[in-house]
Amino acid sequence: MSDSAGNPKVKLPATIAMLVAGVFMILPFLWMISTSFQTPSEVFVRWLPSRLDWSNHVRIWTGSYSFVSYYLNSLKVSVIGTIGAVFMSSLAAYGFARIEFKGRDALFLVYLSMMMIPPQVIFVPKFILFNWMHIYNTHWALILPGMFSIFGVFMLRQFFMGVPKEITESAFIDGAGHFKIFSRLNLPLAKPALATFAIIDFSWQWNDYENALVFLTSPKLYTIPLGLQNFILENNVDYNGMMAAASAAILPMIAIFLIGQKYIIQGISSSAVKG
Amino acid sequence: MRGKRWWTPALAVALSAVLLTGCGSNGNTGDAQPGTAGASSGKPAQKVKLKLWGAVPAEAGPQAVVDAWNAENPDVEVEYVRYVNDDAGNLKLDTALMTGQDADLYFSYVLSRLQKRVDAGVAADLTARTDYDIDGQMGPDAAQWKINGKYYGVPTKKNMSFIWLNKNMLDEAGLPVPPLDWTWPDLEQYAAKLTKPGVYGFLQHEASFTAAIDGTIAGLGVTKADGTSNFDNPLWKQWLQINHDMMYKDKSTPEYGEQLTSKMPVDTMFLKGEAAMLNAGEFIFRNANNLKDYPHDFKIAFATIPRISADQQNYKYAGGVGDMLSVNAKSKNQEAAWKFVKWYADGGMLPMASGGRIPSSKSVDSAKAIDLLLKGVEDKYDRESLDNVVFGKFESFQLDIPQQVIDARKEEYEKYFLNKQDLDTTLKNMADRHNKLLQQK
Amino acid sequence: MGYAFILPNMLGILLFFILPALFSFGLMFTDYQFSNPNVSFTGLDNFRRLFHDEQFYGAIRHTAIFLLSVPVSLVLAFATALVLNRSVYLKGLLRGMFFLPYVSSGVAVAFVWMLLFQPTNGPINEILRGIGVASPPGWFADPDTAMYAIDVVQIWFMLGYNMIIYLAALQEISPEQLEAARIDGARTRTITWRIVWPLVSPTTFLLLVTGLIMTMKSFALIQAITQGGPGSSTTILSLYVYKTAFSYYEMGYASTISWFLFAVIMAVTVVQWIGQKRWVHY
Hints:
heterotrimer; A: MetI-like fold; C: MetI-like fold; 0% strand
């Protein structure tokens, strides 16, 4: 790998091969876009629309669907939830990775075990809890639980543990406290990991259907995954409208990915940490 | 990448703007939960707000219905909330019902779901209401919806399942519109004769696929006299065999695997002239009447979903009445909700007729509903068979089998239709698994 | 001191995960039906039923096949991440393309794969026939192969997700380490397996543990493609729990199956946790 970096004789064929594989990866995405420009009688029959029919894209933004409101709701929930999750998880991850205390590993296993509970069986208890907390049918029912990600703690813990101990130990000797080491040293070093977690967590929150389904009942609070349900009619599906909405829903994901992956590239490999 | 850096701050600004407006509106979310305590205590100034939950998309009629109500009743405002009638959607409704304030009125579409709601104590007993005679208004079929001898809702519409026929293809093949008492062997012959390159003789919508076998046990009894499963009865065997033959021998209907994997949009295929007959319900009307998106120039005729054999006794036709409208027993506005139920059943629901929902109440002039249904497309239907089949009177049933049993049955017949299991084993397994579930009760 | 870092997070986990979980644990011993106020204590009845439930045993088999996708996807993702890390042009675009399946609409994913795997005229079987396979499998239309076809889709789906986490891990490796190895005359393959692979082992451990957990829990993709069929050939445990809870309304029994599922995942995780000392280098 590394010896091939910058060598066009390797890079060019590799790029072409990956592009071919990449097209295979985005086939469903292409189908989404194509279907969004088709008429109902063309769905499942043709790969490409006979002519570009913009009406599906027009009607999801105007008329009875109010996708503008779904979009704003989704942005609100996902952005606050993701920021909260990155903050909360990195803090706890540092605690688990870098601070010795009694029962640390056991506590961490308890954390992990909570990841293993099938979400279906805790819907009802969660519903009772949210009702009692008066957050049922508010966005907080999505945002608050969204801020606590066990996966985030686990992932960032693994990355913090990968940071050479010498770096933090020398800072200790210089008299820095844990919080200072965390915020000045570990966080900047873990930029690629933080960006990656943010991308993944955002995609989960953005696409979260089940929690939104159970905990939001007022249409004006609906997020995009609930909005997409509008296209499931009684005994058939309005695929054209659904795919128009789904392609629009994927755009913020692509934006977040492009922003985030810049930070993935700018890892320590470019800024080269020396002890 | 490099040149695109400008939009990072731009996006950040946009996001924070969204957050600010988002947080601003968050204070209002409390509005979504109307009337905390004491809201209903007879103060005329207080406006009652009701939430009505149903599975029909708002733009397919319900919005027009509640708009009309709200215009007539300034003191009671109804808001329509749509749920998708699948497991997830029903879970959403069931949780909302438990709060007592997020759902006042709701529709159930199958008996098993209503039963659970009655068990949960979220369906008000409407038998106690003396100012509306449900039996008298809705006819004898309504009683199929009784639970423990009581009405926990009002069945508001006529349910209809039947075979849609491309009359032009029938004419070409020299076949008459089938009689009302035709049978599956007849249908098999029709399908074979109507099949030609590019055209299937017969297609089935998933929602109506089991109508014939359901109608059979509705007459025979789900269990035998000794209490064991009746799923191995010879009529089912015959039906399974006929369907298998149509798939693999006559090739007049798609092979089962083909149907599963190509996600065949059967209604679209029928309306495009790629199938001569379609087993489905009244919900096809919405697309069939939409000549812009589903253009077609043939006439549509109708036939009953046939009996399995000519000497079959006590066969019941899929139909009766449906769209059970219930009042949440936990709602704080029982009277207003009940008033809406009566209004809806006795004509308020007419805007839904163009989508195929014909009111079952005798207070509604059915000619008016039929006119709404056929407005502008009268020439696309064979009126005689429409009157006889769609608006005919048949002995009907409501399926009263738990979902678990329905799923087990499906798993077994799928194996048969995919040639993974022979016919006798299939019948035996269906009965065995049914018996096992019966014992658990 | 450690608690100060963990405490805020722990409160949330306690409230939103542990509390509801305990409630569900209690349900195991009841015949609780969703929203029905009449609950009775049934002791171990649910467990007895579990051990005689053939659908349950089938679901375990299907889940085991489903889990095969985890290691395969990991290895492919590692290879992809290596290539997309340095040795291609258009890095941003290519990474985006590989990540896209993970955020695409399930309906679109289901449709496209149904089409690719179409038994009679789908491209995959066309190719198989082209290379001389007389009767290629029926894939989603055959109960014997449907679960493996699901595996293929799952591998494809998880590839981008595993890839970007590997990419993040690769950034932590300082170029000096690799440079030094190369000067010593090590070949690319040696560097990859002797230096890079051990260095990303904490990530591999993370992806293996979470991958197994998430795969055991996930059924959205299966729901979109086969709904558990044909027959019950793709009904994995989590889907069976879902149906039991929300289609059959048997919350108590669903809890029992879930806690069994939980015990299995827990056992697998603890084994991995103990085993990590052998191959994970922090």
